[in-house]
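Standup notes
- DV: blocked on the single-chain target, sequence here:
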Amino acid sequence: MNKLIVLFFFFILINNCSLNENSKLWKDKQKKLSSENNTKEVLSSQKTIISEFNQNLKLNLSFISSNNNTNINYNNDGSQKYEGELKKTGNYKFSKFERVKQIDFKPIFFNKNIIYFDKKGSIIKYNDNQKVIWKKNYYTKQEKKLNPKLNILLDKENILITDNIAKYYSINAVTGKLNWSKRNKYPFNSDIKKHKNQFFALDYKNTLRCYEIKDGSECWNFQTENSFTISNSKNSLIIIKDMIIFSNSIGDITAVDIQTGLINWQLPTQRSNIINETYNFKTSKIISDGNSIFISNNKNEFYSIDVTSGTTNWINKIDSNITSSIIGKLIFAVSNDGFLYVIEKNDGNIIRITDLFKNYKIKKRKDIYPIGFAIGNKNLYLTNSDGNMFVVDLQKGTITRNEKVSSNLVSKPFISNNNLFVVRNGSIIQYN
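- DV (later): unblocked, structure below
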């Protein structure tokens, strides 16, 4: 009997110590096997190291034809007429924005006038002597406290406005008088585009909306996949071949029929879990040459996409949410770490890379990033987050001048009527 009891307890001991999956011996073995055989890297944080390439190559720019008649619906400024001395000739003042981290709102250049807005949403029209012609505000006292940021577009003698507090309206560009005012369910997060009697904008729910210009009534809307966070990047859209092509906050590129709002094609550019990372996801504006569209992002991707089918022509590893520019068969792009790329448009080959930030000390360079650029004749004008503007010789890729515009926030440069303009917080600076 005693032997049976001893054998019984011995059996239990063996079972608990070696056969039970919860035992320490089993756990150690499982941990070792898992470590040796099942290790998988879920997310890689490797960053591509960029260096200059063909930096001594001189471009033949004889094909460049500068003009100011750019196709606004393609978002491609190309090379515009500007050969001034970069001498400051004007200062259009407005009350400074509050709680703003970037200035990505384009002024309206209307004849010789400039139209912009201030921190309370007042729309201001200036003459060419920097004098205020009129100043109009169509916000309530409570709405003004929200510091509305406006997207504005000129339509003949009217101005179309959408904002980040879900309001959209139209005013007369000559008098400033209100034509009509309406409200959307969600704030807007894109530029405005117009076609015939309709205009289009994208809201924070990644919904493209079509409105009638005459009264603001909605024609149709198209919902794309929503994200769980508010994007830190402004979405863009273009109009081409009876289609509206737009980007949303999770990296989808979508083309819909301009009359019906029905989808033609859609191209996802990011993995599915980007939905949870949209605050850090930033894209450039979409630009087009009429046959392909081009867009880049801060995930080291530069896309060329066929307009008709939505198929990818090529992808290049360029980390940039700065809007690029097409001139002839070349694309000019600036990366987020200050490298100027010259790319062959048709096949994506990079023919030159020059480091525009090479004169910054290493410690300072880490905190500086480009804002945007404009091309005037054969020079590129690049503004940076430290308030400096570089003048770059496109043929050589070298900096010929550095202009201090501001000590803090600045916009990208804009060219109009052979003048160059930069918006800083509180004023628009004009250069001849």
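- Follow-up: The first strand starts at residue 79 and ends at 80.
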